[in-house]
Specification:
Layout (H helix, E strand, L loop, with lengths): L1 H28 L24 H19 L5 H27 L7 H19 L14 E3 L3 E5 L1 H23 L5 H22 L16 H22 L8 H18 L6 H4 L1 H19 L11 H7 L4 H29 L1
Antiparallel strand pairs: 1-2
Subcellular location: Membrane
Main location: membrane
Membrane topology: Multi-pass membrane protein
């Protein structure tokens, strides 16, 4: 527990003070956000806001996690290192996208198909490596069995397990990316999800088969260390949120949104709560579905729309809701989704 608190506190402090410095650097170089002309008119005031802020909370999480291990003398685990590698990889894709936007001074960054291919490749590598590195109990970071609120008896095999990981990572990273349209919205929602993973990791460790060999015990490779990593990400995002709330002094960009999606998907996979990612990331699912519904209906109806604009948060902006109102109400939805996910996780244990 001490290591969890250290990781979160160090990441928070680094992000809180480091973001201020990053804002000065990015603003000095003119690396500002490019705003699409077809978006809400109120967003035009955000033009020029420093972007690529995801750099700071990625670094903060890695530093917080690493420092907690150095101070405590504990070794890094394969599960956490693989998740960090996935986060850095997708963050790099997002960075390239952001860099192309600011360097060209238009909203067209990396082509969509290249982003998707990059996400799939790195997610596939993560899934492949996750099936390796068995510990003394023959547990690997990622299981070949499907997991819901815990691992099930449904055997997927290596190929399908990797395909599932690719789908999870791409869905989560693009879901967070779509949600990152209002100041603080995606950051606040992901903090809640990371805190849920902290609780899940601690619970799985306390009820693991290595500690408590009951019939309902959990067989997860590194649950406590994954809780430490989740705390580091929660701390890093909290420090960043101080500067990212409306009116935002800095925007995370695709650098941050793709990385955050990778982090929550990676943690869900390694904690073996894969399908629980749906309720825990409920807000991201709702916003992604609003885009899917809008696109399909537009094509099927010959140009008609369900929402005034997608993603969903822009629909409510165009209805007259203030940006901060949309953010807070959507945070409430995110909190309720996380609470529901944790309730399902605990209910399964009680019933078992």
């Amino acid at each position: 527990m001490r290591q969890i608190l250290m990781a979160g506190a160090i990441a928070l402090a680094f992000s809180l003070f480091g973001t201020k410095g990053l804002i000065k650097i990015l603003a000095g170089k003119g690396y500002g956000q490019i705003i699409r002309d077809d978006g809400p008119s109120s967003h035009h005031t955000k033009r020029g806001t420093p972007t690529m802020g995801g750099i700071i909370f990625i670094l903060a999480a890695i530093i917080g996690y690493s420092a907690a291990h150095i101070i405590s003398g504990n070794t890094f685990t394969a599960s956490a290192v693989l998740v960090i590698g996935l986060v850095v990889s997708l963050g790099a894709i997002g960075f390239i996208d952001d860099w192309l936007k600011v360097s060209r001074q238009n909203s067209r960054g990396l082509k969509g198909r290249y982003k998707l291919v990059g996400q799939a490749v790195f997610a596939g590598i993560f899934g492949f490596l996750g099936l390796k590195f068995a510990d003394t109990d023959a547990l690997t970071p990622i299981s070949q069995h499907l997991s819901g609120v815990r691992e099930t008896t449904i055997y997927l095999g290596s190929f399908l397990a990797i395909v599932l990981i690719i789908i999870m990572v791409m869905s989560a990273s693009n879901g967070v990316n779509l949600t990152d349209g209002l100041d603080g919205l995606a950051t606040g929602a992901t903090i809640m999800t990371f805190l849920a993973f902290v609780l899940i990791g601690v619970w799985e460790f306390g009820q693991s088969c290595a500690v408590n060999a009951a019939g309902s015990c959990y067989q997860v490779r590194d649950p406590l260390d994954l809780a430490v990593l989740a705390a580091a990400f929660a701390g890093g995002c909290t420090g960043f949120l101080w500067w990212n709330t409306a009116p935002a002094k800095i925007i995370m960009g695709d650098t941050g949104s793709l990385a955050l999606g990778a982090a929550i998907a990676g943690l869900a996979a390694t904690l073996r709560v894969e399908l629980l990612l749906i309720p825990l990331g409920g807000l991201f699912v709702i916003i992604t579905m609003s885009v899917v519904i809008q696109t399909l209906y537009f094509k099927m109806s010959g140009g008609k729309r369900v929402f005034r604009m997608a993603p969903l948060h822009h629909h409510f902006e165009l209805k007259g809701w203030a940006e901060i109102t949309v953010v807070i109400r959507f945070w409430i939805i995110a909190g309720l989704s996380v609470a529901g996910g944790l309730g399902l996780f605990y209910a399964q244990w009680v019933v078992k």
